[in-house]
């Protein structure tokens, strides 16, 4: 597409598509030996159906991450009916910002600032403003994101990032998270418990090729993915304290793994309305802002 913006820093390249939900469609970073390595499984730039998006690249999760059960949101004693997502029926999926066209605020060779002013609609009944800042270096991609309640009523909100990290069959994953939220078959969180040995990646382990999905919280904001390619490269992910929830998702045999930092768990707003603690739910007063960041670095 002609509106793709390419960022450059040394031998690193990143391509961002503002009109495709502010997606990073491609990113290659230089490893410690100077070789360019794909960070993300590529997103096909000719695929423009954002309701049924292709699996690849990275996209923002605003104003929430995950699913909202039955497409009904309980907030401040009210029930809000939302439009369900066609591939997650009867639930919603991953917010609205990645299905919208963003505006370029500023750009230079290695950085880009995007903005989105979103009006209420069937998918989200509150207006909001979102911002994304991309900064590319030869070894890293830094992404800052924020959402602001631009309406007159308090708004439940969340933020996160959804990367499709390229992987080799021998991929190893390491991060520390003391709590896990067991997902249902359709990826709704059911409540927190101590992370079990079977789902613990605190000392690092091979993920294998089988399907794996788990939601975590209180993670330490640092993750390592080793041997993501034939050269044995390692990706380090660092995230702000705001993004203290993490999802690890891998479909069986997929050429990617999704390690998604977010501010809350799946169906967090409804769980919090039922009195479940620790969901990460945030309620923004009019004019209030929620922000965070994540950095992907190649070693």
Structure, described:
A hairpin with a 5-residue loop joins strand 2 and strand 3. This protein is an all-beta fold and 299 residues long. Strands 8-9-10-11-25-21-20-15-18 form a nine-stranded antiparallel β-sheet, with no helix packed on it. It is 2% helix and 45% strand. It contains one helix and 25 strands. The chain has a single domain, classed as Beta-galactosidase, Chain A, domain 5 (Distorted Sandwich).
Number of domains: 1
Helix content percent band: under 10%
Q: Report the total helices.
A: 1
Q: Mind telling me the CATH class? A: Mainly Beta
**Whole-angstrom Rg:** 18 Å
**Major sheet: size, sense and barrel closure?**
9 strands, antiparallel
- How far the N terminus sits from the C terminus, by CA atoms, comes to 31 Å
Q: How many beta-strand runs? A: 25
Please state the structural category.
mainly beta
Order of helices and strands: EEEEEEEEEEEEEEEEEEEEEEEHEE
Strand order of the largest sheet: 8-9-10-11-25-21-20-15-18
CATH architecture: Distorted Sandwich
């Amino acid at each position: 597409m002609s509106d793709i913006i390419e960022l450059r820093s040394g031998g690193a390249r990143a391509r961002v598509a503002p009109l495709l939900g502010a997606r990073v469609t491609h990113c290659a970073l230089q490893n410690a030996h100077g070789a360019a390595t794909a960070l993300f499984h590529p997103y096909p730039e000719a695929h423009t159906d954002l309701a049924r998006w292709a699996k690849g690249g990275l996209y923002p999760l605003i104003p929430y991450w995950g699913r909202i059960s039955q497409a009904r949101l309980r907030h401040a004693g009210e029930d809000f009916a939302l439009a369900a997502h066609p591939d997650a029926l009867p639930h919603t999926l991953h917010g609205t910002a990645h299905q919208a066209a963003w505006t370029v605020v500023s750009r230079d060779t290695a950085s880009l600032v995007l903005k989105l002013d979103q009006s209420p609609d069937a998918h989200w009944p509150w207006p909001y403003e979102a911002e994304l800042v991309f900064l590319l270096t030869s070894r890293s991609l830094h992404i800052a994101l924020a959402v602001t309640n631009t309406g007159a009523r308090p708004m439940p909100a969340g933020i996160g990032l959804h990367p499709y990290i390229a992987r080799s069959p021998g991929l190893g994953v390491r991060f520390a998270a003391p709590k896990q939220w067991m997902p249902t078959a359709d990826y709704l969180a059911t409540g927190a418990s101590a992370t079990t040995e079977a789902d613990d990646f605190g000392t690092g382990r091979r993920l294998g090729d089988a399907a794996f999905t788990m939601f975590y919280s209180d993670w330490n904001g640092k993750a390592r993915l080793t041997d993501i390619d034939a050269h044995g490269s390692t990706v380090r992910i660092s995230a702000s304290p705001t993004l203290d929830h993490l999802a690890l998702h891998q479909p069986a045999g997929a050429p990617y793994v999704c390690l998604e930092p977010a501010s809350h768990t799946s169906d967090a707003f409804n769980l919090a309305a039922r009195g479940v603690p620790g969901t990460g739910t945030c309620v923004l007063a009019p004019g209030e802002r929620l922000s965070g960041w994540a950095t992907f670095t190649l070693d």
